[in-house]
Every structure is written in C-alpha cells, then in structure tokens.
Amino acid sequence: MSRRLFAFSAIVSLFILALSGCSKPVPPQGGFEKPISIGLILPMKGNYATYGTLCKNSIDLAVDAVNNNGGISGRKLEILAGDDASNGNIAKSIAEQYVIVQKVSAIVGPYTSQSAMEAAPSVDKGGVPMVAIRASDPSITQVGKYIFRACYVSTYQGTILGCFAGHDLGLKRAAVIYNSSDPNSKTLIDNFKKEFAKFGGVLVSEKSYDMNTTDYTTQVSEVAKASPDVILLPDFEDKAGLIMKKASEMGVKATFLGTDLWDPANLVKVAGDAAVGSYFTAHFSPDDPDKKVQEFVSLYKDEYGTKPGESAALSYDAISLVIEAIKQANSDNPAKIREALADLKNFRGVTGMFSFDKDRNPKKGGIIMKVEPNAQVFVKHIKP
Predict the structure, then answer these.
(1) Does 356 fall in a domain?
(2) Is the domain of 148 the same as that of 296?
(3) Phi, psi of 77, rounded to the nearest 5 degrees
C-alpha cells in the first residue's frame, strides 16, 4: 500500500468513527497546536469515483506542502475525507456532520452540482465556508453567503466566447443554435451577445431545438440565410456534432464555438472533419505555458506519474483558496475565513487569477481549446 493510500485510509477510518458517534481523537500534547480541520466532500465511489481520486490527489499535494513547511502559524492542516458517491443526500448528511459534529473550519467540495445544491443549505445555515469544485450551476452560490465555487459559472462561458470571437478571431456576424431544454442557455447566449458587441459583433440569427430533436436541417437552413461567420453551439457534443455535420453538408462556412460540455474526441467521431478547427472553453490545460501552471503540472506528474486534468486543477485551486483565506484571516474561525475568501483579490491559481463577484463566483476567465483531427490544442487564456 502506498504512503498516500495508507494515509487516506487512516483518515477515512477516523472520519467513519466520528460519524458513528465516537469521540474525536485527542490532539497531540506537549506544545503542539490543535490542527485546523477542513472537510472534503468528494465522490470516492460510484460513477464519478475517478474524478474524486483526481481531486483528492491534488488536495493532498497542496496540504502536504503546507504541513511540511510548518503549517499555518505553527498549526497543521487536518483533512477529513467524506465520500458522497456523487449522491446529493449523502453529501447533505456529510455536510451536516462536518458543521455540527466535526466543527470544521471550511469545506472543499462537493464535486457535482447536484451534491453541492443539497449540501449548501446546511453549510450556509451552519456558517461554514464551502468552496465547490466543479459545480457550475448558477443557483448554487445563491443559496447563501458562505457558498463559493472554484470553477466559473456555466453561463460565464458566453462572455469568454464572445470576447474570443470578437477580439481574437475578429469575427462580426454570429448565429446560435441552442437546446431550448437547457434552462441556462438563454443567459449564456445573452452574455455572448453583450461581450461580442463590444468588438462590433452582431448576433444575426438565433434558432432553437428541443432535447428530442435529431434532424437539424430546419435550424441550419434558417441560420445559413443570415450568412454568419461564427456559430455558437452550447450543447453536448452529440447534438453539436450533428449540427456541424449538417452545416458542412449544406455548405455553411463558419467557425464553430462550444463550451466545456464538449468532449472533443467524441465530437470528431460524430461530426468528422466538420469539427476540425472549432473552438471550445475549458477550465484548464496542462499545455498552458503559464509558469504557475507548469509548476503544478511538474509537481503532480512527479508524484502521480501523469499530467493533471481539469478536475485535479480545480480541486487544487479550491483547497488553495481555503488555505490562503486561513492565512489572511490568521484564524480557524469559519466566519473570519469566509470574509477573507470574499475579500481575496487577484489570487493566482492554476486555473486563473481569482477574485469573487457579489455572488461568490470567480472572475478568472477561462481556457480556449481548438479541435484538431486527433487532439485538442491549447490556444490561450481569456479573461474578459
């Protein structure tokens, strides 16, 4: 058993004992300060278990770096590992235990929007700051002032893409074909339109379809009449790919833009050559030449033998934000840590430069990736 796996197993065992009503371990005596407790809510089992492991790997790296350096004001960080198996009800139960029984100083996670939405009310009521990892649903942080997130909100991608299309590509005529079943699509489109207009761009056509649509001839025909030079497709790659393929068959010449919903490998399988040359948003790329990013990539690869992806990077930023807030607050008091988090300005993470808006969503921009026949290629970091 590896050192990390042994340590993780030991922590999980302590956590299970605590949830069972057993007494918390007595902190070391003889001058050692009581550790600062941070609770994790990650999917270590179930459909998202792979992502949970990636998140835990990065969190271990950040916490080890602090503890091996003497901790924060002489106090070590203690990580409590809670497994929600990407189940909202379990996430809520873990959150309540952290707030009421464990009395943690902060919470990192959950990973998914569903779990975050279930955990958030208990966390906010208990007055403990929580930094969700990849929970991008806009409504999550609106639960209360103690709820933050490390990823950008899903609708913010419209702003990122509007800036890229107008400023970097110099395009002027945009169309959008979107899934009317997505409750956040209209906000994303509005954000795109506003940002695109700053560079002289105009939204010339807007067509929708429902989740059961499989033939996009009508939508593509209507959009083609407006002669767009860029088409925004804010849906999963199965739908976006079919639209691209249809547009290619009908002779439409335009640059396609998408969001982090795209899986580029699957997109190429669906759309073929029509997908090549399109762009999409991402949270992170290990190929980003930024010095901070490359330091993280090297650290992660040295420890785990592979390059980190988005989940690892977002969780590294989530725990790093909490660590920085504890340092700024110089306290383990949750209310003081919450205030320090809200006040952070231009904190340099590996997924961007963090400042939080009034709803505690990060204003940090995002990555633009390009689809190539057999790869996805880093283009640049965009911060509107």
Answers:
(1) no
(2) yes
(3) -95, 135
